[in-house]
Predict the structure.
Amino acid sequence: MAHNNQDIPTTPIKRNKNVLTRYLGKLSPFILILLLIEFLDELTGSAQQAAWPLIRDELNLTYIQIGLLVSIPMLVSSIVEPILGILSDVWKRRLLILGGGVLFTIAVLLTAVSRSFLPLLTAQMMFFPASGAFVSLSQAVLMDIEPDRHEQNMARWTFAGSLGAVIGPLALGGAMLLGVSWRGLFAIFGLLAMSLVAAAWRFPFPNNAIGHDSTFSFSTLREGFKGALDALKRREVLRWLVLLGFSDLMLDILLGFLALYFVDVVGVDEAQATLAVAVWSTVGLLGDFLLIPLLERVKGLSYLRLSAVAELALFVALLLVPSFWVKLVLLGLLGIFNAGWYAILQGQLYTSMPGQSGTVMAVNNIARLVYGQIPLLLGIVAHRFGLDVMMWLLLAGPIALMVGLPTEKNS
């Protein structure tokens, strides 16, 4: 009995130590660098989106050229990124990430010094796949660090990206106020990217499942492609890919139509529409932040089920109420309750593909070739039947989650 009594006090101390170690591990320099990589990617991308009018005027670009600057790099990326993802599971992932970081840096600096369409197109064609290697594979590494905490770490990743997306346009505005051109801002981004590559170079990367730093061979790569195709045949993998596609109806797709909805359907002016987008972005950032501690206490799938019901009710109310200010409140609530949709679903996709974190990048790109056409289809509906009618189709997002999420018994 005396021996047992001595053991009793040590148990909570050990448990507290484990909890402390687990939380400190999330704040390790390596994990912070991975999160900063995602932050910088979204910071750069959102700043460029805001800078398009400045870039267009300075380089005398046409709308056709701007369209090519967006579409051609995306096409190149859709071909290259699946190969990079699969390659990272069978070859030197560390080399792919750091090499992607070097190309990312060069692409950003080339953007800063571009004086005409072709150099800028070259920079964009380099930037998109470099981002896939540098950023998307860093996400895979983050997932491999703690395989039993995919949802929690994806929540941190999503918050880092959302923070970058919000700060990017603000950074451009601040730079302009200080007399720094968009070129100077991108030069700063390039230096930040260079610093992150140098910092990441100091750390060993966790071994990927199939083989770490193994010798490259086409037969090994072929096996990796076979593994990706086999994964696409599995019901669980397809479930999360489909739900990721539908969830985007309440995320980026809704954001893409939001300003147009407020101007063309609600009937407010452009300034008020901009306010609506700002409310959405700001509250969404807050929701992403609050999700991090929430997932320490609540199961991700349980939260998703409740949030899908809330989103359905809130979005119906948003479409029905006439008042602009009430719509803003509902929009803010929508931004709170859809927080975590991407993080949790993407985390579940990683969990459904153990040992294939790089291949997750590949299957995501393949799936995007399908659901990437959804905005075009919605645009056709809006053109033929009106934007007010099209907005109701976005309800398919929460409905898909309510129907497609596994039950408590199966989760």
Q: What stands out?
A: Residues 91 and 114 are 34 Å apart (CA to CA). The two ends are 41 Å apart (CA to CA). The first helix runs from residue 2 to 26. Residues 235-404 form a domain with the Growth Hormone; Chain: A; fold (CATH 1.20.1250.20).
